[in-house]
Automatic annotation (TrEMBL):
Name this polypeptide is given: UDP-N-acetylenolpyruvoylglucosamine reductase
Function per UniProt: Cell wall formation.
Subcellular location: Cytoplasm
Keywords linked to the UniProt accession: Cell cycle, Cell division, Cell shape, Cell wall biogenesis/degradation, Cytoplasm, FAD, Flavoprotein, NADP, Oxidoreductase, Peptidoglycan synthesis
Residues annotated as signal peptide: none
Originating organism: Algoriphagus sediminis
GO MF entries: UDP-N-acetylmuramate dehydrogenase activity
FAD-binding PCMH-type domain sequence ranges: 27-198
Similarity comment text for this entry: Belongs to the MurB family.
Length: 347
């Protein structure tokens, strides 16, 4: 019962709910209050209820980009806004509006089934559609901004829906306005993508080409690229259903050309990818060459195949993972003078 609280909306606000099933790290912290919302009106009601009762709010989608470090004393809102709607299409492209609560990988698979192209390189990325523009998800040479058209987001103060185009989202590397200037001000409710019907396949990044060759594929299709990406990801990344993790824990840092050349003299095998603003160095290489790959500390550790992934083997605490992340940052900074920044949000 919510006897000490003001009148709750009709949707079911639960008390003292374990967040274990709602975060891919598998951390067992509690939410004082918890609600699932399946439409924008319920979302507004939940926000109003939290405001009237002076509760903090935590928005969760797929829970694949958060690290819980303590119980959450406010209201956790699980976004279940669903739906896939074609807004317009012609022989060359389709504009498709997708609810923020839709599973990202399921949407990628659905797009491939329908012959829509542009997101096949982003197969098997965990999380929901609503989170995809928030951090401009990317993999194997493709980023969301390349297929993004617009999104709708609820202003948490005015409770009005606002539309953001690509420019207004201010996309950067794993960045958008929703992680910076507008952090905590909006809740994304839907995303509209502009997908092609005439595939331009991107197989140059990483080992996609070699994987396709290993698979014996010569006439490459969109579906084949997706299969290759899935095969690569499954070979390197642990399944959160088996080992708690949030995928890549750190961003790949970009350093100046001058700094990269200096490091190259010391470490001739250091990889680097030239960008407009410098050279991107793989964080996984930096972590591995600082001696962390495969290290285990009780219930937590660094994954043995992919050092960019921190894992919870079971019964691990979020605070333990934070401490491990800090030690890795310190170690990499000391050896390479590069500060790694987390991709994961600490709660």
């Amino acid at each position: 019962m919510l006897s000490s609280q003001k009148q709750a909306p009709k949707m079911k606000i639960k008390q003292h709910v374990s967040l274990f099933p709602y975060n891919t790290f598998g951390i067992n912290h509690m939410a004082s209050f918890f609600v699932e919302v399946s439409d924008v009106e319920d979302l507004k009601k939940a926000l109003l209820w939290a405001k009237e009762n002076k509760h903090e709010i935590l928005i969760i989608g797929g829970g694949s980009n958060i690290l819980l470090t303590q119980d959450f004393k406010g209201l956790v809102i699980l976004i279940k806004l669903l739906g896939v709607e074609i807004l317009k299409e012609d022989q060359d492209e389709v504009f498709v509006k997708v609810g923020a609560g839709e599973n990202w990988h399921a949407f990628v698979m659905q797009s491939i089934e329908k012959g829509w192209c542009g997101i096949e390189n982003l197969s098997l990325i965990p999380g929901t559609v609503g989170a995809s523009p928030m951090q401009n998800i990317g993999a194997y040479g493709v980023e969301i901004k390349e297929v993004f058209y617009e999104l709708e987001a609820l202003n948490r103060e005015s409770l009005e829906l606002e539309t953001f185009n690509k420019t207004e989202c201010q996309f950067g590397y794993r960045e958008s306005i929703f992680k910076n200037k507008a952090k905590g001000k909006y809740i994304i409710s839907s995303v509209t993508f502009r997908l092609s019907k005439n595939p331009t396949l991107n197989t140059e990044y990483g080992i996609i080409k070699e994987t396709l060759k290993e698979m014996g594929i010569q006439e490459v299709t969109v579906r084949d690229v997706s299969k290759a990406v899935i095969k690569i990801r499954e070979s390197k990344l642990p399944n959160p259903a088996e080992i708690g993790n949030a995928g890549s824990f750190f961003k790949n840092p970009t350093i100046s050309q001058e700094s990269f050349e200096a490091l190259k003299k010391q470490y001739s095998n250091i990889p680097g990818y030239v960008q407009k603003n410098g050279v991107k160095v793989p964080a996984a290489w930096l972590i591995e060459n600082s001696g962390w790959k495969g290290k285990r500390f009780g219930n937590i550790g660094v994954h043995q195949k992919q050092p960019l992934v921190l894992v919870n083997y079971g019964q691990g605490e979020g605070k333990e993972i934070v401490e491990l992340a800090k030690k890795i940052q310190s170690s990499v900074k000391e050896k390479f003078d590069i500060l790694l920044m987390p991709e994961v949000n600490f709660v």
